[in-house]
């Protein structure tokens, strides 16, 4: 268990994304918005929680079959694109105040996704060796 991860900037960002995604999902569900809005917010919450568990339990170090930071970047980019479209539709249509609140919270979630991409982009470099088995330069 990595006890320092929740206090790190990336850990706090993942926690904030999961909580904000949950609140966005609840806003969409309570307002009776289109099911696609609720499904997108729910999927974002679930996938972010899985990445949080992956890093918290240090499973990324055990499962080396995938380059997890790059998968996290791809998830954040795809989530940001979907959130942009869905939340703009929710704000434009704004059938009620719950849908409007969910759309605004979704746009804040989009900003957190972009911040995650920037933080992970600074952390990784594709030309740098990863792991201890890579030869030293």
Automatic annotation (TrEMBL):
Q: Does the keyword Transmembrane helix apply?
A: yes
* Domain MARVEL per the UniProt entry, residue ranges: 5-125
Q: Which PROSITE patterns match?
A: MARVEL (PS51225)
Primary localization class, coarse: membrane
Q: Where are the transmembrane segments?
A: 12-31, 37-57, 69-93, 99-120
Highest taxon in the source lineage: Eukaryota
Ordered alphabetically, the record's keywords are: Membrane, Transmembrane, Transmembrane helix
Q: What is this protein called?
A: CKLF factor
